[in-house]
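Submission sheet (multi-component)
Chains listed below:
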Amino acid sequence: MKPGSEVVLRLDAITKRFGKLVANDAISLSLRKGEVVALLGENGAGKTTLMNILFGQYTADSGSVEVFGQTLPPGNSRAALDAGVGMVHQHFTLADNLTVLENITLGVQSLFGWRVNKAETSLKIRRLSDDFRLKVDPDARVGSLSVGERQRVEILKALYRDVKILILDEPTAVLTPQEADDLFATLRIAIANGLSIIFISHKLHEVMAISDRVVVLRHGRRVAEVDVADTDKTALSGLMMGVEAKAPDIAVARPGKTLLSLQNISTPNIKNVPGLCDVSLDLKAGQIIGLAGVSGNGQAALADVVGGMRMPSQGVLVLGGEPLAQWSPRKAVQSGIARIPEDRHKTGTIADFDLTENTILEGYNSTPFSRAGWMNWSKARRFATDIIDKYDVRCPGPDTRIRLLSGGNMQKLILGRVLEADPQIVLANQPVRGLDIGAVNYVHSQLLAARDRGAAVLLISEDLDEIMGLSDVIHVIAGGRLSPGFARGSMTPAQLGIWMAGQGFDSADLDGEVAHAS
Amino acid sequence: MEILDILISASFWAAAIRIATPLILATMGELICERAGVLNLGIEGIMVAGAFAGWMAVYSGTGLWVGVAVAMVVGMGFGLLHSLLTVPFGLSQHVVGLGVTLLATSSTYYAYRLALPQVTSPPKIAAFQPYEIPILSDIPLLGQALFSQTPFTYLAFALVAATSIMLYRTPLGLAVRAAGESPAAVAAQGLSVTAIRMGAVIVGSGFMAMGGAFLTMSAFDSFFFEMVNGRGWICIALVVFGSWKPGKALLGAVLFAAFDALQIRVQQTSLGADIPYQIFLMAPYILSIVALVLVSRRAEVPAALMVPFNKGER
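Outcome: structure written.
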């Protein structure tokens, strides 16, 4: 778009290895004034690593970074900031115990100066907030802010330092569509003010909407560079994946007998998060039940009850026709309930364990992985190797610590661990959150395959498209209450939206419609 | 009734403040370390080293304040060792801390034997004397309790104020608090987490050593083995009790000291004749545990406490 403008940033043949993994293989990149370059690639393609090198958080094994003609010293964030480079990390770098103002001014002044001039700072932050439409209260504690607000703070941090180059790492991954639109409005103001932007994403429509030029990375290599004007989504998707992405075909479900039945289940509220309120639900063999709803409406409680993490305060759980007197995670695992946890980092894996250990987190105390109290590591290792091959987990090997894997590969490993046990019931809680298209399609096809093998699948997601695309029956959860089941295709997103807002439960008008729909 | 009499006597509160002083100093030191994200279990040993170093300096002829400075520098030395191992090398803070305590304690005893090979009872020095602050010390009860102490105690209170101002009113304090909460945020703003954490541990260790020095240079006038006697561990608890805030930690130290002063006095009342004295010795610790349980539920732990930060690792 701006061929004549000066080049503000030049990356030259950056190479970075993590152990055996080559994250960046001689990648070069340039950025002109007022330009938006999108860095497109699947998870694990090396986008974030490259930007962390530019921002001085990692040190490249070879290659150089040049900003406004000056070579930056490697591994020095301060030098990058001083040269006018700011970065908004995907995992925010904010201290929760500090206020917005404190987070923004951290490190801006000399450490050994006297007290922060609060009034002046506050004024500058408010001016920037107005100019760039980044509404946030400078005196609020960051710990109390929503995700969208935190991101605004991250952007303000950079703007406060008058950066000329802004790097945004997957900025929309945590935003609602409305917030994403606001972000784009802000970025357009920034460009008009002469900033240059590097925008990391794997969402094609965003890349098409905001950027001038696209650099595509795949497996740590730069595979293409195209002007947005000369390309389209299909072409970009092909470049990013290496092959064309294809959504799975869905066969008609053949529901069998009820495997797990929740009957009038209630759980207490925990702090502000509602528990369940008289919820009844049958999980049937060969059927995917989708649970739609806005986050924090009782999904966690339902997942905990099914997964054995929580005992309901009222109601009965019936497993295979038998009412359960006791219910625990171990009992759930032994009963053939497989869980894909909502947060793969926190509850799905142990970051510093290797892949072998992580694959047997649920099965470690049963044959074949242990016998009479002794571990059988060779069996465990073979199991992990099989999963790595079968589920295409890209990693140096089963002895890699799992923290070194990208989100998509981590999720594939969890999926393998869950499905290889040939479970009766699959509890999939946000199974594709933060994954790229290739991984999303893969996870979905595996869930469908599990269904077709006769498993009952409970899919919990905040993504209505995912719910509507995959589920045979859709329930909406709102305020801990569960809507009746709606058959595939019987409801429009707008109709479900009314239930998600909690308005369908009491209205007599809607009841008529529901009866018709189900 | 007797207990009530004790509680309204000025000498009781004066004793409480005196007993609290070493705790206040060392607690501030530990608080600074922990606010930056490093648990310093070297505190017990560093207090022993400080107690010896300050006293020895004065015994060999320096002035009292020079003695305090010597204690502080020795403490900072152990702080440097601790922070080198825990911050850039990222070793276990528990192991390093206990190691520093053992090293500091035993090397102190070794130094004592080297310096004074022949003595059976340790020599005395001319310790800090109480200084009555004009006018303020005339206030009933409060005057005697707070303003008739030694200058070392006044220094301790001044350091609490200084710590509080540093933490909440300066860019440095902001960086220290951020380092204990989110080192990634500190690094992303172009600051060195390593430098901030090492600095906090070194300065904090200096404060701990001053707490030890108070024992030999103000509370008593001589150095004995075992004289620190677990005070360092109490300070670790006091930091939690104070929710990592200097003012509340000061309050906790005074409260604990008051219990301690109280139990000594109650032992001498009619109550003390009936109850075994061990019960009284236990009382301050039991009350501390109870207070900790009640208070620390709402405490906000620095989120990155004991989490090493390695730049460039993912």
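Remark: Chain B has a mean pLDDT of 92.
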